[in-house]
Design goal:
7 strands; two-stranded parallel sheet; single chain; five-stranded mixed sheet; 9 helices; alpha/beta; globular; 193 residues
Length: 193
Amino acid sequence: MVREDELAERLRLIARSSAWFMAALAAVRELDLASWCIGAGAVRNLVWDSLHNYSAPSQLPDVDVAYFDASDPLPASEARLQRRLHKAMPGVPWEVTNQAAVHLWFEAHFGHAVAPLASLAEAIATWPEYATCVGIRLNHDDSIEIIAPHGLRDLFDCVVRRNPARVSMETYRLRVEQKSYALRWPRVTVVQP
């Protein structure tokens, strides 16, 4: 069985081999946020496209930039950062979210309250499927940091498995139906609850 550190190194290689992804990481790094990553579907698609030997990246509805700043939970700050990214890379569908503020709007959007989060890693650990609970950050020395609270096995095994931390069974089923994972990536296995 492949070790976690080997999967992490493999993920770094996949990220470095993608010109658009490295450019996106560099653009976000320019925001000079203390705690940030590009994660979720952008990382999942990057890896699954690579594992399926696709020559062009799959269409993304958004590129999730997650950051953690408890001192500034205002939506206007997210919007300002998102505008800066659009200016730097206009063709990218950026979605910037301060994970320290999620508890302020989550109930109105998804129908149930959530507790405040303490860190970016804690936030990533609550994302919908274990394969998407992964973030990548480009440090100032150009090293790549990986945040994967649940590990990388589901991501590299192409497994869609519900993370019960925050996603209801109903939401999970809806996501699986809407995203058509197996149609996009034939090697994907969807774990049905």
